[in-house]
From TrEMBL:
Pfam families per record: Aminotran_1_2
Domain Aminotransferase class I/classII large, first and last residues per copy: 29-384
Subunit structure: Homodimer.
Keywords, ordered alphabetically: Aminotransferase, Pyridoxal phosphate, Transferase
Protein name listed in UniProt: Aromatic amino acid transaminase
Family statement: Belongs to the class-I pyridoxal-phosphate-dependent aminotransferase family.
Cofactors required: pyridoxal 5'-phosphate
Length: 390
């Protein structure tokens, strides 16, 4: 008999090990740029004002927590459409389903592809968010990878990307980061997005846009540039959205999968599949976070306040990037990248050294969550990185 003792070893997520190391360090001045959450100037990850107000409204007005059904809060997916889909929000061939976070949306999207076309390969740039490869493998789909990031130029290796997409077969999935590439911060330019949309459409690929950081790169409208272009160019598109970052509701698990199909009937049919897949996995998505986001978006004043606070977060991301970029010419590229993450020019040994000498914690790859640094630590952080690079 084989039992639980026979479970194979797993390759542990090194970021989780890093969190344990940060917690074990008793130095008062430690700086954690490992974990990927937004922090304000004081080093906190606060509940956003509009979210708090919406939660209060929910608390006062909610008289039942009875089941909502497999689609969860339909008003949530509807309210998100103009934000995520922009000029395509009225397209009825796009259906949206509430999911437990961006992860839930990715899981559903990959399972949907595997059900429709099990031979599809997922064309994926590297490095990527460490959860992408196991999630793809978990649905039985194969990965074809290419180099997304050129570490010497500190930019997207666009030639490699274009070549990989050109080599895709019709029906293969093009996994794209909507904005704020994780872990590199290296996003496509508008012109590169146009080229990607052209290749993806011409080769008959299925774009899967992972859209977890809308509002953190250039602003809410600008950040959906690639999403809108691919919706212009392609009849079938998958968008895995997360509100966990831009509404700062991480633990409430708020996401949405948008699926564009060729016809209205195809879209409705795909939706029934999504309900079936999610029924097997989680039955119904958790309500509270999505209901909160809907409550914000259905209220003009709360929406305005949410947008104002999101803009403040965006401004802080820019400020931190500019400050680090100004510390040394070798860090100047940081200002040209987007979102919370960039790869610092440190070797694995230097990452260990900066941890031991300066109590600064980052992934072995040198990926750092730059807004993890509180204002009062910024100068010390820059000095430590420059000293360690030398
Ligand atoms: N995609 C990317 C690129 C991410 O960085 C994350 C979050 N770290 C997700 C998806 C998943 O987000 P969520 O927490 O909403 O599941």
């Amino acid at each position: 008999r084989r039992g639980l003792a026979d479970l194979p070893p797993i390759v542990s997520d090194t970021l989780l090990a890093l969190i344990a190391m940060v917690n074990a360090d008793t130095r008062a001045n430690k700086i954690d740029v490992g974990v990927g959450v937004y922090r304000d100037g004081a080093g906190r990850t606060p509940v956003m004002r509009a979210v708090k107000a919406a939660e209060q409204k929910l608390l006062d007005g909610q008289h039942s927590k009875s089941y909502l059904g497999g689609a969860g809060d339909r008003g949530f997916a509807k309210a998100l459409r103009p934000i995520v889909l922009g000029r395509h929000s009225g397209d009825e061939r796009i259906v949206g389903l509430q999911t437990p976070g961006g992860c839930g949306a990715l899981f559903l999207a990959l399972k949907l592809v595997a059900a429709a076309n099990p031979d599809a390969k997922v064309i994926m740039g590297t490095p990527t968010w460490p959860n992408h490869p196991p999630m793809i493998a978990g649905t039985g789909l194969q990965i074809t990878d290419y180099r997304h990031y050129d570490p010497a130029a500190r930019k997207v290796d666009f030639a490699a990307m274009a070549e990989a997409l050109e080599a895709g077969r019709p029906g293969d999935v093009a996994l794209l980061h909507g904005c704020c590439h994780n872990p590199t911060g290296a996003d496509l330019s508008e012109d590169e997005w146009r080229q990607v949309a052209e290749i993806v459409a011409r080769r008959g690929l299925l774009p899967l846009i992972d859209f977890a950081y809308q509002g953190f790169a250039r602003g809410l409208e600008q950040d959906r540039f690639g999403v809108e272009l691919l919706l212009d160019a392609c009849n079938e598109v998958l968008i895995t959205q997360s509100c966990d970052k831009n509404f700062a509701v991480y633990r409430d698990r708020v996401g949405c999968l948008f699926v564009k199909a060729v016809t209205l009937d195809n879209a409705k049919f795909a939706f029934t599949h999504l309900l079936q897949i999610s029924r097997e996995a989680w039955s119904m998505p958790p309500d509270h976070g999505a209901a909160t986001v809907r409550t914000v978006l259905e209220d003009e004043a709360l929406t305005a306040d949410w947008r104002a606070e999101l803009d403040e977060m965006h401004a802080r991301i820019r400020m931190v990037r500019e400050t680090i970029a100004g510390a040394d010419p070798r860090l100047a590229y940081i200002a040209a990248q987007q979102g919370m993450f960039s790869m610092l020019p440190l070797s694995v040994d230097q990452v260990r050294q900066i941890r031991e000498t300066h109590a600064i914690y980052m992934a072995d790859s040198g990926r750092a969550n730059l807004v993890g640094i509180a204002d009062h630590d910024l100068e010390r952080f820059c000095a430590a990185v420059v000293e360690t690079m030398n």
